[in-house]
Amino acid sequence: MDVNELATSLDIGWTLLAAALVFFMQAGFAMVETGFTRAKNAGNIIMKNLMDFCLGTIVFWLLGFGIMFGALNPFFGGIELFGDGAVGVGYNWTQLIFQTVFCATAATIVSGAMAERTKFISYCLYSLIISAFVYPVSGHWIWGGGWLAEMGFHDFAGSCAVHMVGGMAALIGAMILGPRIGKYSEDGKVHAIPGHSLTLGALGVFILWFAWFGFNGGSTTALSGGSAEVAARVFVTTNMATAVAATTVMLITWLRYKKPDVSMTLNGALAGLVAITAGSDTVTTAGAAVIGLVAGCAVVFGIEFIDKTLKIDDPVGAIGVHGVCGALGTIMVGLFAYYDYGSVEVMPRGLFYGGGASALLTQLIGVVSVIAWVVVTMLVIFTIINKTVGLRVSAEEEIAGLDIKEHGLISSYADFTPVAHAIYEDTEPAPTPVPAVRVVSAEAAEYGPMSKVVIITRRTKFDLLKNALTDIGVTGMTVTDVMGCGLQKGATEYYRGVALETKLVPKVKVEVVVAKVPVAAIVEAAKRVLYTGSYGDGKIFVYDVKDVIQVRTGKTGYDALQYPEIDA
pTM of the predicted model, to two decimals? Predict the structure, then answer.
């Protein structure tokens, strides 16, 4: 193998590895969207993220690749069915798979903003059209040798071509679809609908951050020559912008909401990733930091504006992250471009480095043009779907959850699935239960009536309470995780900038039934270990118990609470 063949193999290997990382972003998006929405829709969201990639792969191969990379004219590449990477310069399998995973990313962005109330069949339809037509046309303008490319428009890895396209499609879809039930009052007041798992959301963000190194770094499509240096620079700028954006959001929410908002900070990391994508090959590390700072500010105020002012319900912040920050990141290339595109040479093009306003103007023209294209086409597409098969599920289906109504899935979480009745084929007859025997022992007469004590308190206090009850002779208890609030309605907290009006606080409920152990001793032990003097210490409830039956022995009353064989 000569040097040229070795270089070519290295370049192909690098691009294929990057394609695999970009594919892994589908898992990241699935986890973010699932975590930021309610558990009753988790299976539906997973299914949508799976199928937009599968359907997108098929139609992009069938139609989209030819439209994007054909040479018909600067505005439309042409219809060349079953591309197989053969458009333009012979067969190019590497380009086909690399562009396929990018196309799927654009389509999946829309899912988050329209989550929890969209028909599955409608989602499949508009994902097909985005992958087959909407994304490839604007992609041709930018990456397929179209009119924006001829102008010198620069979008290295897709802030505009991928993310802004998905974000603007999400905006139009969410507008036409309308908000989730209960999101806004008749007077326009915003109500928070928290996602069910920040853990899943955070996992998704870390997956996306990791895979983004392939998304941006792999867009060099080579490591030979000076491309390795460019790829290294891209890794650094991508990471820097992301870290700065997340830190910025943490500080802003800390000041505005009095506590750092977890979900919004996760969105901040994604905002930095989106914003740096267009110029990650051209900016300095300092420029990347400024881009991350701007993206962090934009995503917080953008999400709040979309939610509170425009009254557009976007459960995961997709419009703010991908639409707003995609546009800003693309425009900022005209301000911060320092290195010559695709070169290690220093040839300032950005306004802030003395390159003049021409690059900034070109970036603005490109952003406005792509926004206009996506808005017009998606308005038509969503309107047609809405008038035919319908976009939105019924109110009954939305309330019950799309898992059960769209997929017949009782729950996406096995621990919360109702237990089915087991069927046994016994060869021997079932044992006859021991009949209840009412015998009042002398010891029972000594201790008198039975009482049930229910204690509700902080989860953090459970171990102290359990030990205290054990020390005074309580041998059995029932413990339940519950949610609740007192007169103060919990502490005032915020979710994504929206106050949680009546917050149900996680608590633990401990129930004990006693006769031998004095109720007063239980109450005093509980008060001693639970007291802090602050709201939320809990409540103690005492009830009279009419009877107790021990199923195994048939004993009743006081005797049913005793286990002499164990004590012995």
Answer: 0.81
